[in-house]
Each structure stands twice: as C-alpha cells, then as structure tokens.
Input
Amino acid sequence: MEDIWLIILIYLAAVNLFGLIIMGVDKSRAKRRKWRIPEATLFLVAVIGGSIGSIAGMYLFRHKTKHWYFVVGMPVILVLQLIAVAIIVFAPLNLFFM
Output
C-alpha cells in the first residue's frame, strides 16, 4: 500500500515540475517569437496532475495571466482534482486500493 502512495507522489512531483518547466519554456519562446507550445498541451499537463506546477509557472513567469481561460481554468482543474482525491481517499468503499 505504501508503494502505491510513493509512486503516486513521485508521479505528481514529476508532472508538476514538468508543468512549471513548460510554462517557463513557452514564455521564453514567446519572447523570442519562436514556435510555441500549444495551449491545449499546457492544459493537458494540468489535467493529468500538473495543475499546481502549471499555476505556479503562470505566476512565476507571468505567462498566460492575461488570458481569462487560464486564470480561471487552471484553478478549476486543481479544485476538481482535489475533489476527486477527497472522494477516492474518503470513499466509504475502498474500491481503488483493496
């Protein structure tokens, strides 16, 4: 059981670090007028668990903070993820980790 939680924590750390990094990379590319990372990819990284890193990258690099769908969308993704975690952890039936 502890191994599963360790794997989940390592995954979340990695995907959040990746979310932070791609926000920085995209901001750098925007400044240099180079090929950009698609917005759908930035959102995908948030959806697969990198929402905290993506939000941190938005504000650390001041990237996408003028786009309402990022300013609203990223926190909404995070809240939905937190609700999902709460449901999984506190569910009356432990369906996922029997």
Summary: The chain has a mean pLDDT of 92. Residues 2-90 form one domain.
